[in-house]
Amino acid sequence: MENRLIPLDPNAPFRFSCSPEAVCFNECCRDLNQALTPYDVLRLKRKLGISSQHFLQQYTRRHAGPGSGLPVVTLIPGDPERLTCPFVTPQGCRVYPDRPSSCRIYPVVRVLRGSRQTGATMEEHLLLREPHCRGFEQSRTQTVKEWMADQQILDYTAENDRLLEIIGLKNRLWPGRLPPETVDLVFTALYDLDVLRERFIAGSLPAAEALHPDFPAASVDDDLILLHLGLEWVKQHLKKTFAR
Fold this sequence. Notes:
Layout: E1 4-7, E2 14-15, E3 35-36, H1 38-48, H2 52-59, E4 60-64, E5 71-75, E6 88-89, E7 92-93, H3 101-105, E8 108-114, E9 121-129, E10 141-142, H4 144-150, H5 154-160, H6 162-173, H7 180-190, H8 193-202, H9 208-211, H10 223-242
Antiparallel strand pairs: 1-9, 2-10, 3-5, 4-5, 6-7, 8-9
Helix pairs in contact: 1-2, 6-10, 7-10, 8-10
């Protein structure tokens, strides 16, 4: 039996539940190729109580996005043979309250598509059926909306969607591979927030007010606002560097 992706009507209930009592508990935490969004990194490094630089060096690998060329990070498996998540334990996930968005929304897959006719973004949902998962045999049912609220995914989707503007902007301005120095700058602005904070404080980047009038300079102490500043800086840098 292979993995299947089944279209989901957002208002139609689907059957699924996961708990430590399930015979497949923790099976979805192996054989992973786990990409992390900037907001995932923010939540995880804060949960672990370490700097972004420490987190990135210890737990992730860096890649170029296959479609955008923008930097992407993936988790380094805790077990290189079974490719298990570095945060899984026999009792479950040790970072569960701050687990990555793709783990949080599982088994639902959220897809955003842009309409070429209207430019509007359309949201679609699919159900990922994997052979090992017995969660679909449970009695609990819910709609997509109920599942996303229950898993507290809405903050994640709101932050992750901020990347779409950057991806679209980069592809319009520079469809090819980015220069290495630009990739390094974008990586720091999106993922390495503590280094980004140091650069703001040192004055090697524009003041927060210059990026956006709603950001006071003191706001760089807040990781989430700092991420928003990083996203805004990336947009301005791409426009300044590649606009024709």
